[in-house]
Amino acid sequence: MAKSILLTLLVAGLYVLHQDFWNWKRIEPLVFGFLPVGLAYHVIYSIAASLTMVVLVRFAWPKGLSPDEQPASSKPREPK
Q1: What are the structural domain ranges in the chain?
Q2: Angle between helices 37-60 and 2-18 (to 10 degrees)
Q3: What local confidence, expressed as pLDDT, does residue 20 receive?
Q4: 70: Cβ–Cβ under 8 A, 6 or more apart, which residues?
Q5: Could you read off the pLDDT of 6-23 as tens digits, one per residue?
Q6: How far is CA 41 from CA 23, 45, 61, in A?
Q7: Which value, to the nearest 10 degrees, does the dihedral of the CA atoms of residues 46, 49, 55, 60 take?
Q8: For residue 32, which of 2, 42, 50, 76 sits 20 to 30 Å off, Cα-Cα?
Q9: How far apart are CA 63 and CA 40, in angstroms?
């Protein structure tokens, strides 16, 4: 139960951070001398979103969706 609440909060937090209204009209400062701050923010956001998907697949993916993870009772029987 706590795991699903934490994962939900993680996704909700990532959703809120995607609405980066504080960078909408800013170009300065340039990150690394050439990258506008809004674009740099979205690079970091994209990495965070990718890591969130890794966490979600690792901890929230339903069991039994892959053919090699089928429960023993639903696997086809081998012919004798």
Answers
A1: 2-60
A2: 160
A3: 81
A4: 64
A5: 999 999 999 999 888 887
A6: 8, 6, 28
A7: -150
A8: 50
A9: 37
Cα 27 from chain centre: 27
Interatomic CA distance for residues 48 and 2, integer angstroms: 21
**Does pTM top 0.90 for this prediction?**
no
Cα–Cα distance measured from residue 44 to residue 50, given in angstroms and rounded to the nearest whole number: 10
Q: Which two tokens stand for residue 15?
A: 């959703």
Give 20-78 pLDDT, tens digit per residue: 888 788 878 888 999 888 888 999 999 999 999 999 999 988 877 777 766 666 656 67
